[in-house]
Amino acid sequence: MLLEFRVRNFRSIKDWQVFSLAAAKGNELVESNTFTTQGPGDFRLLRSAAIYGPNASGKTNFLSALESMRSIVLESANSKRQGHPLSIPPFRLSKETAQAPSEFEITFLLDKVRYQYGFAATARRIHEEWLIAYPKGRPQRWFERSLNLQSDVPEYRWEMGDKLLGEKQVWQKSTREDTLLLSTAVQLNSRQLQPIYDWFRETLHVIGVGGLNPEFSASLCDKPEKKQVMDFLNAADSCIEDISVEEKPFDPKLLPDDMPEGVRDVVSNEMRDKNTLDIKIIHKTPENDLVAFDFSEESDGTQKLFSFAGPWIDSLARGNVLFIDEMHDNLHPNLVRSLIGLFHSDKTNPRNAQLIFTTHETSILNQEVLRRDQVYFFEKNKEQASELYSLTDFSPRKGRENLELAYLSGRYGALPYIRPLRYSPDGVRYSPPQAQSRESA
Predict the structure, then answer these.
(1) Are residues 139 and 242 in the same domain?
(2) Is the model's pLDDT at 73 over the cut of 70?
(3) Which domain, by its residues, includes 276?
């Protein structure tokens, strides 16, 4: 269960931006949209949150930051990536941050214990790393490392807490400067740190930054979960009779015709010994005949809904934390509302999975769908840096204020600067901005 994610100096994000799923005070939709954790220091957490903002405001960069953190945890100790730079571009529009490390910190609950884990890094080196556990509500610093750049030869200062068990000296000596201690220790069989590593691998999922793949949903069609996939699709009135999935050897002829020859050769070599999934969507004619269509022949909305089905079903069943970029794309507003509703029900979400999504769909910006603390906004400030803030900063009237209308009228900021085009004989010109930012509103 996610409590908080913090990031600074990453892409368009300059200063600390804090995203929290801790529920604010207020009893609106408390039974459906929130849940209470069990254990030391019980928390009331949100089951979902929506992030709004204009294009290029930082929404996708925020999710990319989380995905980068996850990837570094899972892959930094892999010997195959030794010598390759870490994928963490800093905020480059400021001299003070362009060469400074990016910083990430995440707080989550696992088996009734709260963990606070983070690190600071540049493309070539980890500068800081820390892990604090709260098994009885009080902090235990399990480890901390920090890089001393003032000495002639940069070296780390290590603090290994007595609550961290295992071969600590071996882990410390084995951790390269571009590798996380957490990842290294797990690779060297730390049973105590393994569940934390597994939380990043199995519970935290980010979809959309690198695209949505239908293969996971297709893999469920050979299992009992196929009925759930079918129910998921037909709940959207997609009129799908059946789904057929078959493994086939990779065929280079399926690659796009305009793919460069060199790239085509690389992809063909990598896929030579691998199978691909041939997905057929089966429909019924008025005469009750069955007709199979290639997956690519279906509408963009059906393709996206099918690709959603697997992660959605898996997340609700396992209690995952699911981040999705541009969730509204190619989906009807009523369907978006229905998908969110699955996370807001004890019946369909018994393990308290959490959904966080970016969107431009304002019809769900409604106090009957979302609590005020479930709505976040991103916008750029005068330094062109992304800033994240909550709807609760504006104290909208509970149950009375029309959130959609207020947002679209500019009351909460995070709207695009729209410059109407004006045509003249010597070219296109722009009129001054018509929308106000939060700072000028």
Answers:
(1) no
(2) yes
(3) 224-312
Examine the domain organization and report whether 148 and 229 are in the same domain: no
Rounded distance, CA 9 to CA 76, Å? 20
Is the separation of the CB atoms in 86 and 119 below 8 Å? no
Residues 6 or more apart in contact with residue 84 via CB below 8 angstroms:
none
Which CATH number characterizes residue 2's domain? 3.40.50
> Could you tell me the pLDDT band of residue 435, with boundaries at 50, 70 and 90?
very low
- Report pLDDT digits (tens) over 146-204: 998 877 788 899 999 999 999 999 999 999 999 999 999 999 999 999 999 999 999 99
Q: Rounded mean pLDDT of the chain?
A: 89
Q: Supply the pTM of this predicted model.
A: 0.88
**Residue of 209 and 350 predicted with greater confidence:** 350
Helix or strand (DSSP H, E) at 51: strand 48-52
Could you give the 3-state DSSP secondary structure of residue 342? Answer: helix
How many domains is the chain built from?
Answer: 2
**What's the average model confidence in pLDDT over 327-351?**
90
Pairing outcome for strands 155-160 and 113-121: unpaired
Helix, strand, coil abundance in the chain, percent, nearest 5: 30, 30, 40
* Residue at 218 is within a domain: no
- Going from the C-alpha of 161 to that of each of 145, 196, 268, the distances in angstroms are 11, 17, 49
Residues 288, 321 contacting (CB under 8 angstroms): no
> Within this chain, do residues 286 and 403 fall inside the same structural domain, yes or no?
no
**Is there a single domain that holds both residue 204 and residue 337?**
yes
* Beta carbons of 413 and 437 less than 8 angstroms apart: yes
Residues 21 and 150 reside in one and the same domain: yes
Q: Confidence class of residue 259 from pLDDT cuts 50, 70 and 90?
A: confident
Q: Are residue 374 and residue 260 in the same domain, yes or no?
A: no
Q: Where are the alpha helices (DSSP H) in 203-321?
A: 215-219, 226-234, 261-271, 300-318
Flag whether 19 is in a domain: yes
Which of 312, 337, 357 corresponds to the end of one domain?
312
In a domain, 219, yes or no: no
Per DSSP, helices labelled H in 257-360 are 261-271, 300-318, 333-343
Last residue of a domain, one of 280, 312, 344: 312
What tokens were used for 25? Answer: 């005070």
Q: What pairing do the DSSP bridges indicate for beta strands 427-430 and 421-424?
A: antiparallel
Q: Give the pLDDT confidence score for residue 439 in this predicted structure.
A: 56
